[in-house]
Amino acid sequence: MTQVASYPQQKKSGWKTLLRSRRIALWEAGGVLFINIFGGFLHFAFELSGYAKPVAFFASVNESTWEHLKFYFWAGLLFALIEYTYIKDEANNFIFAKAMSFLVTPLAVIFVFYAYVGIMVPIHGQGTYLGAVLTGVVGVIIGQLVGSYYLQKRPLGKTYKYIGLGIIVILILMFSTFTYFPPKIFLFEDFYGYVYTGQFGVLEDYEPYKVFR
Hints:
Layout: H1 2-5, H2 14-18, H3 22-48, H4 65-87, H5 94-124, H6 129-151, H7 158-177
Helix pairs in contact: 3-4, 3-6, 4-5, 5-6, 5-7
């Protein structure tokens, strides 16, 4: 009876669901900062490691869209593991909620980034570093909002937990293997300087890409 009484307005307002638990909402907002900051570190981790092949498992190895999605995913997964220890007793549907967040974030980043490229490249020839960063921030915010919604939603049952687990496993397999065995399509092609270079995965020469010299 207590559980039913806790969700009197479930069908009336999605915003009320998002704000039902201030603690969960604040954690998800904090996740936006963590994922973008730690993900930003992973963008440069491969170079900082001296281009160690094992680091390519979770760090960006080129400037393709996929390699940028990868560091958001791993940063989000790490944040979820930390977050779970603090909100597990209050949150509902944790695995499914995080799976939806992990799934929506890259889709949102792809949509926002290519919309940005479609506007900036014809006008200016290329985008800006700040603009590219902001497209990622927007994508992460959307993903965290989706996660926050399901964390505060009425419990959905075990079926959704298994669906969530399946999604997470598939994403882990994709993000851990496509760096080494990238499909030869634009999403995985190096996009250095807003120009497709014809290169995929781990590159042969990183001299033009070095940030730390």
